[in-house]
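Internal tracking record. Fields below are filled automatically when a chain is submitted to the structure queue. Please do not edit lines marked as system-generated. If the sequence contains nonstandard residues, flag them in the REMARKS field before resubmitting.
Queue: standard
Priority: normal
Entity type: single polypeptide chain
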Amino acid sequence: MFKPFHPPHIYLDNTIYFITARTRDKWKYFNTDRRKLLINNILKSVIKQYDLQLYAWVILANHYHLLIKIKSNNQLIRFIKSFHGQSAISLNKIDKIPGRKIWVNYWDHCIRDEKDFWRHFNYIHHNPVKHKCVTLINDYKFSSYREYLEKNGEEWLGSCFRLYPIIDFTPQDL
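SYSTEM-GENERATED OUTPUT FOLLOWS
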């Protein structure tokens, strides 16, 4: 059986990463607002615990995307392990299925420049539209889009999308 090649993760100090992870077998574990809120709360808690800077995020029914900055190269793997571990334990407790594996591996991309940053920023916020969760980005509750809308306004967000058009960054097996 062919097994896809996943290159090793490379971690650099003071670097921004685009992170994507999906659930095992693409199962929709986060299919309710309550479950998405739970995952969001765990995410925010673990981000704070590891003192990471979160630039953009979205949580969908079977995957998430993040744009985060790490200070030291060992933070990212510790953050992922903690976030995935805490979220799996919480979901398994709700469903009364201890030990069930929720997550598969994650994908990371080291942001190379400003253009790369803003394209990933836009991709994250457009993801609920791409997956047909909503028709308008602003209608989706579980992303950082509304935070930026409130803080910077619609004109600013519109300029981000005009200056840095969306490219599909989805890994093939997501």
